[in-house]
């Protein structure tokens, strides 16, 4: 038995939006580095370019990990929907009890 929930996650908070925002951040950093690096000697320019390349690669790896994790979580939740909800409910009760006892 599979459960399908439409609009469980808001359309504004999607994984693709996060990745797009990260890529915009990298592009902005790249533009800033090019503008700021115009007066730098060649060695610091190479360092800045190298750091930007590493940042872009890190964003790509983060995107791949997030997609892989989302698929694995989706597969698990579809295979064990009631167990997953039970565990989440139990953890919520435990967290609520701990928070309440500290007040």
Entry summary:
This protein is mostly helical and 103 residues long. The protein is built from 3 helices and no strands. 80% of the residues lie in helices and 0% in strands.
Describe this structure in words.
The structure is a single chain. The chain is mostly helical and 103 residues long. It has one domain (15-102). Helices cover 80% and strands 0% of the residues. The chain has three helices and no strands. It has helices at residues 15-36, 42-79, 81-102. Helix 1 runs antiparallel to helix 2 (42-79). It is elongated, with a radius of gyration of 21 Å. It starts with 14 loop residues before the first helix and ends with a helix. The model has no long low-confidence stretch (mean pLDDT 79).
Helix content: over 70%
Strand proportion, as a percent range, falls in under 5%
User: What distance separates the N and C termini?
Assistant: 42 Å
Secondary-structure element string: HHH
The counted number of beta strands is: 0
The domain count comes to 1
- Unreliable residue runs: none
Largest sheet: none
Integer average pLDDT:
79
Sheet/helix structural class = mainly alpha
Principal-axes shape call: elongated
Number of discrete helical segments: 3
Please compute the radius of gyration using only Cα atoms: 21 Å
